[in-house]
Design a protein that fits this description.
This protein is about 40% helix and about 25% strand. With about 150 residues, it is α+β, with helices and mostly antiparallel strands. The chain has a 4-stranded mixed sheet, with helices on one face. The radius of gyration is 17 Å and the shape is globular.
């Protein structure tokens, strides 16, 4: 039994490093006390590439540590998020379309207004200015390089 308890205490630190996520509302409040750059990961539940990519990013412990210590990370499902979002002084709502829909904020952030590309990565500096717009896969190596550039700038 004692071995099991020790195993359960140790395993999470090796296997389950996770990117800590926040909501738009939480970022707005936390930015006032502790300004940090913001990473917005826009995806959909049907996007298998998005799931694989997010899994790979979470497997990279150095990347997870870099993000958790220096950035706010918002995981944003473009079609499932139905709450009203206040962002950069504006209000955005969910736009239903039959059995599905899309959030207005996704359309506002995406360069492709008619058919956003997933995954979509938006990285803002601590003053909420756009510093990176990335459509498609972001490998852990590419992301670490970009985030280090942003953080050390």
């Amino acid at each position: 039994m004692r071995t099991l308890v020790i195993f359960l205490m140790v395993v999470p630190s090796f296997c389950f490093s996770q990117i800590k996520t926040v909501t738009f509302h939480e970022v707005e409040a936390q930015q006032k006390e502790n300004p940090k750059p913001v990473i917005i990961h826009i995806y959909t539940s049907w996007c298998s590439v998005c799931k694989i990519e997010y899994f790979k990013l979470n497997k990279d412990r150095d990347l997870v540590k870099l993000i958790n210590e220096n950035f706010y990370f918002i995981n944003f499902d473009a079609e499932k998020m139905r709450e009203k979002i206040h962002f950069q002084g504006e209000e955005f709502n969910y736009l239903p379309n039959g059995n599905s829909g899309i959030h207005e904020l996704v359309l506002a952030l995406s360069k492709n207004k008619k058919h956003p590309v997933y995954p979509l990565w938006i990285i803002l500096d601590k003053n909420q200015n756009l510093v990176e717009y990335h459509e498609g896969i972001f490998t852990p190596e590419e992301m670490k390089q970009k985030l280090n550039e942003i953080f050390n700038h």
